[in-house]
Amino acid sequence: MSDDPLPEYPRPQLVRDSHLNLNGRWRYAISDDPPETYDGEIVVPYSPEAPLSGVNRQLLPGQTLWYRRSFDLPADFAGGRVILHFGAVDQTCRVWVNDVEAGGHTGGYLPFSFDVTDALRPSGNTLVVAVQDDTGNGPRGKQRLRRGGIWYTAQSGIWQTVWAECVPEVHVERLTLTPLLDDSCVEVTVHAAGGEAHVEISAGGETVARVTAPAGRPVRVPLPEVRAWSPEDPFLYDVTVSLGTDRVRGYFGMRSFSVGPDADGVPRLLLNGRPYFHAGVLDQGYWPDGLYTPPSDEAMIRDIATMKRLGFTMLRKHIKIEPLRWYHHCDRLGMLVWQDMVNGGEPYRPWVITAPAVLPFVRLDDRRHHRFGRADAAGRTAFETDMRATVEHLRNVVSLAVWVPFNEGWGQFDAARIAAELARLDPTRTVDHASGWHDQGAGDLRSLHVYFRRFRPPRPDGRVLVLSEYGGYSLPAVGHTWGEKEFGYRRYRTVDALGEAFVRLHEEQIIPAIARGLSATVYTQLSDVEDEINGLLTYDRAVLKLPDDLVRSITKRLRLP
Fold first, then answer.
1. Measured CA distances, 144 to 5, 44, 150, 152 (Å)
2. pLDDT (tens digit, 9 = 90+) per residue, 290-328?
3. Non-local CB neighbours of 189 within 8 Å, separated by 6+ positions
4. C-alpha distances in angstroms, 67 versus 34, 42, 87, 377?
5. What is the secondary structure of 503-518 as a DSSP string?
6. Which residues does the UniProt record annotate as the domain Glycoside hydrolase family 2 immunoglobulin-like beta-sandwich (predicted)?
7. Judging by DSSP bridges, how do beta strands 464-471 and 445-450 pair with one another?
C-alpha cells in the first residue's frame, strides 16, 4: 500500500501553484448508516475492489461505502476560496466537510467540485464521503458484477485523484482553447465571473502573442509562423492567463480534424487538411492492480509510448474516460485519441448486441428504445447530460480526433440525432455514431467491427470507411495470465503462430483495403484484460507478445498510398 499514490498535478491544462493532494490512506467502512468505527484503511484513489486499495472487497448494489480522512490546509491557502475536487467517483456520492454537507454527484466518470471554504477550520478538518454503486444501471462501461469474457470486474467508489486548491474570489473557472489552423490563430475564452484577463502565449520558451480577453468572450489570437501539431511533431504552445490575482497555466496544439476527399475523390480522415491514416489500438484502460486506476503516471506513459514505438498513431479509449493526465501524455507524445462515451442503460439483449458479429446484415432501428435497453427516458436524458459534460471536460485535449457515442448497440438510442448533437457541440472533430453495427447512416464514418469473417470493404456510401475493431488474436503468456479462463476471437499457442496470423491478416485483408477506401483501423487490443488474453501486451504489461520489428513491419504499411 502506497502512502503517496498518483501525486502529480491532476489537471495539466489549468494549472495553479496552490495544490493539496488528498490521495493516500483514508479510513473506510461498508455500512448502511454513518459508522461509529471503521473497518480499516483504504488507499485512495483505488477502488475497494482493486488490490492497490488494500481492501479487496466488492461493493454490492444497496450497500454504502464510507470514506473518512482528516487534513490540514497549507499556509498559502489562507485568505482565498478553497475548492475541493474529485476526479471521478463511481457512482453516486455525498460529501461532508466537518459535518457540513458540501454536495453530491451521480455519474461515475466525470469530475466534480465544491466550494468548501465556509465549512473549513484552520486545522483538523474532517472529510467524509458516502458512495453507492448500482453497477447494473446507469453508465457502467465494461464493468459487470458477474464478470467474464469481455466484461470485467466491477469497481466502485473514488477512483481518480481527490485534491483541493485555493482561488481568489474572482478566478479563472475554466479555459476554452480552440485552434483555428487555417486562420493561423487560437481562439481563447476565459470563463470567469467577471473581469478582464491577460493572456500570454509562448512557443519553445519564447513569447509569441499577448492579448487582453474580457471574461466569457472568445478572443482570437493571431500566431506567427504556426507550427502544426501531429503525431510526428507533437508541438505544444504554452499559455498563461492572469485574472486579477489569479494565475493559471495551460497549453494547446495547432491542428485540425475533418473529413474530405483524397486526390482520387475517396473520402478520408483529414489531419491539418491532409489525408491521414489512423492506425489504432483498442485501449480498455484496465490494470490488474488498480482496475480503472493506473498504478502510476509512468504506467500510463509506458502504454502510450509502447504503442507509439510499435508504429501505431491512435488509441481508441474504449467505454471509459481517463484521468486528464492520460490525455496530456497523448498530447505531448503525439498519439491520436478516439474517445468513446460511456455506455449504460438497462441489461442488454444478447441478440441485439452480438448477432451482428456473425450476421452483418442485421440492422435495427435504434428509435425502438426497448430493444437496446433504453426504454427508460430518464436514463436516456442522463446519457445526453453526461455526453455534453464529457465534451466540455475534454474539449481542450489536443489529440482527441473522433467522438464515439455508441459501441455495438450497447445502450444505443437515436444515434443519428445524437451524432448531429455531438457535431453541434463540437464541430472541430469527427463523429463515429455507431461503432460496429446497427448503423443508422449518420455521422462522418462508416464504422465496422470484423472478428469472425473475412474483411471485405463494402460499397462506398459517401462516408469515411473505418475498421474500428478487428483482430483480437489471443495468446496466453505463461506466468502472466490473470486466471484459468481464456477468451479470444482466435486462439494461438506459440509466438510464431500468432505472428504468422497477425502478418497474414494484415497482408491479405487490411493493407489491400486501404486503396479501396479504408482510412482507419483499430486492432484489438493494447493489453490482456482479465479473461481476455488478446492483447499485444500481457495484463501486467510485462511481456510484449510479438517482436517489435514484426509489428512495425506491418504498421509502417498502414499508411495512405
1. 26, 22, 10, 6
2. 999 999 999 999 999 999 999 999 999 999 999 999 999
3. 175, 176, 178, 213, 216, 217, 218, 219
4. 10, 8, 16, 33
5. HHHIIIIIHHHHTTTE
6. 170-255
7. parallel
CB-neighbour burial class of residue 73 (10 A; exposed 0-12, middle 13-18, buried 19+)? middle
* Entry field: residues in the chain: 561
Single-letter amino acid code for the residue at 202 = S
As a whole number of angstroms, the distance between CA 129 and CA 35 comes to: 12
Which spans in 490-559 are helix H? Answer: 495-505, 511-514, 548-555
- 299, burial (CB in 10 Å: exposed 0-12, middle 13-18, buried 19+): middle
For residue 369, the one-letter residue type is H
Residue type for 423, please? A
With DSSP H G I counted as helix, E B as strand and the rest as coil, what are the percentages for the chain, rounded to 5?
Answer: 20, 35, 45
CA distance linking residue 319 with residue 119, whole number of Å: 37
Write the pLDDT tens digit of every residue in 48-86.
Answer: 999 999 999 999 999 999 999 999 999 999 889 999 999
Coil, strand, or helix at residue 415?
helix
| Type of residue numbered 275 | P
Q: What is the helix (H) or strand (E) element at residue 426, kind and residue range?
A: none
Cell, residue 88: 471521478
Q: Which amino acid type is present at position 119?
A: A
Q: Pairing mode, if any, of strands 125-132 and 65-71?
A: antiparallel
* Residues 6 or more apart whose Cβ sits within 8 Å of residue 420: 442
